[in-house]
Structure formats: structure tokens, C-alpha cells
Amino acid sequence: MKNELHKIVIVGGGAGGLELATCLGRKLGKTQRAEITLVDAQNTHFWKPLLHEVAAGSLNAFEDELSYLAQAKWNHFKFIPGQMASLNRAEKSIGLSPVIDASGHEVVPARTLTYDQLVISVGSTANDFNTPGAKEHCLFLDNRQQAERIHTTLINHYLHAQACNNETTRLRIAIIGAGATGVELAAELHFAAIELAHYGLDAIKPEDVEVTIIEGGERILPALPVRISSSVHKQLDNMGIRVITRQLVSEIKADGVTTRDGEFIESDLRIWAAGIKAPEFLSGIDGLKTNRINQLVVRPTLQTTLDDRIYSMGDCASCTLTDRKNERITIPPRAQAAHQQASLLAKSLIAQANGSTALAFNYRDYGSLISLSRFSAVGNLMGAMTGDMMIEGTLAKWFYISLYRMHQMTLFGKLRTGTLILKDLISRTTRPQLKLH
Ligand SMILES: Cc1cc2nc3c(=O)[nH]c(=O)nc-3n(C[C@H](O)[C@H](O)[C@H](O)COP(=O)(O)OP(=O)(O)OC[C@H]3O[C@@H](n4cnc5c(N)ncnc54)[C@H](O)[C@@H]3O)c2cc1C
């Protein structure tokens, strides 16, 4: 009788999970040394740091999505569509919810999948901290559907204003949270306002689009150095974007946002971009240790604290390490971290297939970059050659884009990534600067 292959199941094919499935498929799946299975709630992969561009319309999501089935076929792993809902550690199995279509029909029934090693990389969503009215009256930016919903809502405001021909039409947009997502989205919406008028949707003039960012902390971009935060703040001021700091949002209503200090910021569109939390279903799942934002607590090997067979990485994992200066650092929820963890885990799982023990993760912060749409980018580069160097403008923009190109390189290799860059350059000359539908 044929021996069963060792089963590695990866749940979540995002910035980290898809890179891992691709690497393991090429190294272990192709040579039949293990069966690699990727599970994702969606049928296509879309790199999350591009979502604010989809929301504003500067990027058409259809052009950058990747079919999981195709990637699986090309890279020797299996793809199973489904949403993980439960875990049975004793049986080494996970439970997937049924897949239901838009009209409520069951496409695929609930299923159980068994594993020998399990990697959970299901990412995170924004954290509304149960603020009253947030779920009902805010739009969110956690996945492609939500980004497209923001875009459709924006376009509909313009179409309405155009059809009603109202000379005093304004569009007031409130963004809650001045982290990287909120700031980049604000700049992208500012660009969209200019472009929409340029393409003839000029009933709302660019100067009548009032974008306000509301932040609870002392300053915008609290996770980044002060000099970057100050430089970005200045550029937002120049764009006419209003920034309110030290104001916690206490309630969201259908027509605006109330702060704890009692200020009411009227708005036609409200977008929640503050905080993160891992999906609820992870909280204490089958006795595993999780923190207050549902992240699975992992050791430096990215193994969960109670189960050596279960790994977690990316935004849904809480990983604290000791750095070279003997200081404790918590790995931030960033694409850069998910990418580095996926590379480590690929090496570690391959080493284990060859009889070695699990490898430990070391995080290298290469710096942070904030994109201000087509206008600019600001950030810092950190490395042995550069030290901690602040960069701005075209160079910063170039480094910002290179993060996505590195993700594509891991998924497709150098040659295909080169072809994709060429395709993007050519298609830029043949389509409008903004998605207008
Ligand atoms: C608008 C925006 C801009 C950003 N910009 C940057 C940036 O410039 N630089 C940077 O470093 N980071 C950025 N980030 C953060 C970055 O996107 C995340 O840190 C990164 O995507 C995390 O990768 P991940 O693999 O952990 O999860 P994700 O990339 O979020 O992938 C999670 C995957 O899991 C799937 N999934 C979720 N639940 C289930 C389930 N129950 N069952 C099965 N599948 C499931 C999802 O469909 C998804 O495919 C940005 C985030 C946003 C929202």
C-alpha cells in the first residue's frame, strides 16, 4: 500500500500565506515529499497594501488579482476554497464553513480537513473597538469587496451630484485613524477628486471635497518616527486635508462622527481605518493561547505556545522576540513582516522534512514608507549601508512600489515579474488614470 504523504495545510493565502504555499509547493509538493494545501475564504488573491488604491479608483482590482487555482496548478500545491471556523487539535483537523453564494445557495458543504502541520495566516481586520454606530455607518477597508464598495459609493456621490446639477455640492469624507492606511487613503482620495473632475465629473469641484482624518493619538502615523510623521502631516496640510489629533471617536451617526470632546464632524462618507484585530474565531481556539485582539501567541519558531504542529504568522500572530540589543520587540502587523515570516517558515518546514528541528525567526526592519498617491512618498530606509535614512519623493515612491514587486517576485519569479512590470507600464498609457465605474 502507498504511504500517505505528509500533509501541510496553510490557512489564509494573503501576503504571507500565498508566498509560503508557493515556496513549499515548488520545493516539497513538486518532488512529492509532502502534500501542500492552501485554504482561503476567497477564490483570488489580492495584495492588501493596494486596497486604498482600489477604494479611490487609482487601481482596478481585476488587473492585479491572482487566481488561487492557477497559482496552485503552476506551483504544485492544492487549493481548497473555504473559511476556517474550527480546530480539533486531538484529531489534527480543521473545520471549514459551507461556501454560500450571493443568493444564499450552498455551493460547497461544511468540510473537515486533516493535517500533520498547520499554518494559520488569516490576517487581520480593522478594530472598531465596538464604537457605537461604527458597523452601521462606516465603510471598512479590509478586503477587496470592501474597497470596491468604497469606490462605488464615491462614484455614486459624483453621479448623483452630476445628475442633480447642484452648484453647491460638497463631499465630506471622514477617515477614522491616521495610521498608514488612513493617511494613504486620504491622499488617494484627494488625487481621485482631481481626476474625477478632469474626466468630466465636475459637479463636485476638487476644492469642495473635504477630507478629514481623525486620530486618537498625539500625532499621525504613531508607529513611525516623528520626523516622518511631521513631514507627512505637512504634505497633507498642503493638499487641504484636515487632520485632527488627540480626539477619540465616541460615536458614528448616519451624518457624521462624534468625538469624546463633543465635536461633531459632519460627513457624507465615513471610513474606519483605525486599529487591527485578528478574526474572532481564533479567540482561544481549541485552547490555544491568544491575546486580547485574538492573535495567536507564537514562539520565535512561529509555533503556537501549546502545539508544536500548529504555526501562525502575519497579522494574526503575536510574536515577541529579543533583538540584538537585548530589547523585546513585538513584530508589527505589516506586509514586510508577513513576507519575512513566510520565508523563514518555508526554510523551517523544508528543514524539518529533511530531519532538522524548527528554525527561529529574526525580524529585520528595513524601514517604512508612506505613499501619498501620485504626489509623493515619505519614509525611512534601515540597513547596514544606509543606517536610518529618511527619504522622500520619487526615490521613496520607487522603494514603496518595490515592496509589491518583491511579493510578485516570490510568487512568479523574476522573468514573469519583469513581464508584469512591462504590461503595467504599457497599460498605463491606454487607460484612464482612474477607474470611472
Ligand atoms: C489599505 C492597507 C494598506 C496597507 N499598506 C501597507 C504597506 O504599505 N506596507 C506594509 O508593510 N503593510 C501594509 N498594510 C498591512 C498589510 O497589508 C498586512 O500586514 C499584510 O497583508 C498581512 O499579511 P497576512 O498574510 O498576515 O494577511 P493578509 O494579507 O490579510 O491575508 C489573509 C488571508 O486570509 C484569508 N482568510 C481570512 N480569514 C480566513 C478564514 N477564516 N479561512 C480562510 N481564509 C481566511 C483572507 O481571505 C486573506 O487572503 C496595509 C494594509 C491595508 C489594509
Tell me briefly what this model is.
The protein is of the alpha/beta class.
Main-sheet strand order equals: 5-2-1-11-23
Oligomer status: single chain
**Uncertain residue segments:** none
In CATH terms, the superfamily of the largest domain is FAD/NAD(P)-binding domain
The structure class reads: alpha/beta
| Corresponding CATH architecture of the largest domain | 3-Layer(bba) Sandwich
The end-to-end distance, rounded to whole angstroms, is 57 Å
Bound molecules: flavin-adenine dinucleotide
For the secondary structure, the number of strands is 28
Keywords for this structure?
single chain, 437 residues, alpha/beta, FAD/NAD(P)-binding domain, 5-stranded parallel sheet, 11 helices, 28 strands, globular, binds flavin-adenine dinucleotide
Provide structural commentary.
The chain is of the alpha/beta class. The protein is 33% helix and 26% strand. The chain is built from 11 helices and 28 strands. Strands 5-2-1-11-23 form a 5-stranded parallel beta sheet. Helix 1 (17-29) packs parallel to helix 9 and helix 10 (393-412) packs across helix 11 (414-428). The longest helix has 21 residues, at 144-164. The termini are far apart. Residues 11-17, 39-42, 48-49, 51-52, 83-84, 121-123, 141, 180-181, 279, 314-316, 333-336, 338 line the site of flavin-adenine dinucleotide.
